[in-house]
Amino acid sequence: MHRFKASMSHINMHPISPANTPPASNESLPAPQTTDTRRAKRDQPVLTTEQKARNAINNALTYTTSLDGYTLHSVVGFGANGVVIAAEQHTPQGASIPVAIKIIYKPNNSPKQPSTASDPTPNEILTLRAIARASNRQQHPTLLRYISDHQDAFHFYLVTELFGSDWLALVRSVLNIHGQKTNSQSLPPLVHRGKGVTLRFSNGSADLWAWSYFERCANWDPATGETAGLPGHLVKKIIGDVCSGLHHLHALGMYHGDIKSENILVTAVNKDSLTSEVQVGGAQGDYHIEVRICDFGHTESRSTGVRNVGTLDHAPPEYSKSAVQQGVFVDGAKADVYALGLMATRLLASSGMFSEMVVDMDNMLGMVRDGVIEGMSELELVDDLLTGMLCDEPEARFSMEQVLTHPWFD
């Protein structure tokens, strides 16, 4: 079996139909209330992530001044541990800076049973502080830029650059052109009458998953139901840029610990060009993008090894909780390489580049000498790269530097 085919066995491919966007929650929402998990378990059903996000914002606006000094625009994402707001920060000089405010939940953020205003700082904030210090605020271009942080009795507040395009809004534009509708529904806005704030509410649409979904929809033929693959040159850029950021992080003595499509933000640099392409019914990758690695909640020092992984499905073969409990050292940098290899495999398997090459893959085997890099076909280079990244043995697996300097990126 060709090694690239073998590497595909590491993942389960699930085709995405343009008409199947993730459904939004339509459940009724209670008024602002406690998110104390112990009381929730004892007295009421456990809150959904959407309810927790709404409660956190309402609590912050009602009981604290932590969001004063910002103009809040919209909720751009939420999860089990926090909610992200797109906002503007107003400086003493009168300038306005676009920022993202991530409200990170404390275990007890109830108005009746608050935590303190001096709780231990979450790992994600400590990591971004350390990156900013080490980089002397000239950060690597693919690591999300830290601005500031603070806390009150209810939450931690992490302020970073605002980054990422609303790819799902572009999906809706594309499908409207074709007279199609998505099955996703808009979430009700958050209204806080006391502060006169109304926020558009979204469950996140700026990540790599949303970008790939947009590309599939933008090049979808409603007559045949078929869609072109992801643009190969953009896939290569994304993988290379993420690799470069992780290489920098590893050089600082840290590993990320949760590399996946949801933790890579993507923005269109020339948005006007992209919008015009969408209006004529296709994107075809004729635009420029930039990426940022985000969500450093599982980042640790490389010297400690991996103790917990962010997403078990992306963990390397050598990781298990029992192994860690027995003192087995799991190299976090090599774990990042493996997770990036899984992400790269998914992207390449969905790309037009891969679709064109796979037809002649077996025939190429007899035409390329084993182990010869110079003159290797694109397919053989991809095969060599992914085989090195997804090697089961961590000692034999590529380092991030080997990935970054691989001939496929030339």
TrEMBL record:
Q: Which GO terms describe its cellular component?
A: nucleus
Q: Does the keyword Transmembrane apply?
A: no
Q: State where composition is biased (Polar residues).
A: 18-35
Key words of the record: ATP-binding, Kinase, Nucleotide-binding, Serine/threonine-protein kinase, Transferase
* PROSITE patterns membership: PROTEIN_KINASE_ATP, PROTEIN_KINASE_DOM, PROTEIN_KINASE_ST
Residues that coordinate or bind ATP = 102
> Is RNA-binding one of the keywords UniProt gives this record?
no
Q: Name one GO molecular function term.
A: ATP binding
InterPro entries xrefs: Kinase-like_dom_sf, Prot_kinase_dom, Protein_kinase_ATP_BS, Ser/Thr_kinase_AS
Instruction: Show the segment(s) annotated as Disordered.
Output: 1-47
Instruction: Fetch the SUPFAM superfamilies from UniProt.
Output: Protein kinase-like (PK-like) (SSF56112)
Q: Which GO terms describe its biological process?
A: mitotic DNA damage checkpoint signaling
Q: Which Gene3D superfamilies match?
A: Phosphorylase Kinase, domain 1 (3.30.200.20), Transferase(Phosphotransferase) domain 1 (1.10.510.10)
**Listed Pfam families:** Pkinase (PF00069)
Tell me where in this chain the Protein kinase domain is found: 70-409
Q: What domain of life?
A: Eukaryota
Q: Which family does it belong to?
A: Belongs to the protein kinase superfamily.
UniProt name for this protein: Protein kinase domain-containing protein
Native species of this protein? Chytriomyces confervae
